[in-house]
Design brief:
Helix content: 10-25%
Strand content: 25-35%
CATH superfamily: Nucleoside Triphosphate Pyrophosphohydrolase
Distance between the termini: 8 Å
Oligomer: single chain
Shape: globular
CATH architecture: Alpha-Beta Complex
């Protein structure tokens, strides 16, 4: 299937059905409880949203990630989807995802077609509930990183991320030199792990069900 309206319609329709959610998430972090067991934590969780931006490049469907800058915080230097916290002036969480993506990677959010969203992810260390939205742009954007928040931009074809075999065991360094054993997706010389890997795993499992254009 080419990168066309039919695929986007299939994806939008699939997003309205039951999602893999915890079944996909636990392949990344098997100890994490399903989100419906976290009602107490979710009452005071801070709302945020990220954008899974799809676009054609080199005859394949791609998405984009950012590497966060180094700072004194739990997500310092990590690979993530563009996004951030909900602000009072945002119309809704979809608006948050688009606004933050425009701020962080310089896309024109008015030119992004929002297709739908997948399951939220709760992140205990920062007390954020992340709401992932999927958007499409019919050409590759000219990405411009926001230097105070974004240390680098990483693009990847979805074909490099689809399938259980793409999820591998890694060791990552966090905080004061602490080493964690994690499951994650290698991308260039970086590792996508944690909440971003959980989001990515659910999304790529949905793509496996469709006649996606990255095949």
């Amino acid at each position: 299937m080419s990168l066309n309206k039919d695929f986007l319609e299939q994806l939008a329709l699939r997003l309205e059905g039951d999602l893999p959610a915890h079944d996909a998430h636990r392949k990344v972090m098997s100890h994490r409880p399903p989100i419906h067991d976290l009602q107490e934590q979710l009452r005071n969780a801070r709302q945020s949203a990220v954008l899974i931006l799809l676009y054609p490049h080199l005859n394949e469907l791609h998405t984009v990630f950012i590497q966060r800058t180094a700072y004194k915080g739990v997500h310092s230097g990590q690979i993530a989807f563009p996004g951030g916290k909900y602000e009072l002036e945002d119309k809704n969480l979809e608006h948050t995802a688009l606004r933050e993506a425009e701020e962080e990677v310089g896309i024109d959010s008015t030119k992004v077609q929002t297709i739908g969203k997948i399951s939220p992810i709760y992140v205990p260390p920062s007390n954020f509930l992340i709401n992932p939205y999927i958007g499409y742009k019919d050409y590759r954007p000219n990405f411009i990183p926001e230097p105070t928040e974004v240390a680098g931009i990483l693009e990847a074809p979805l074909s490099d991320l689809i399938g259980d075999h793409k999820l591998k065991d890694h060791k990552v360094k966090i905080g004061e030199g602490q080493i964690l054993k994690v499951k994650g997706f290698p991308i260039q010389d970086k590792i996508i792990w944690g909440a971003t890997a959980m989001i990515l795993k659910e999304f790529t499992e949905l793509l496996e069900e469709l006649d996606h254009p990255s095949r």
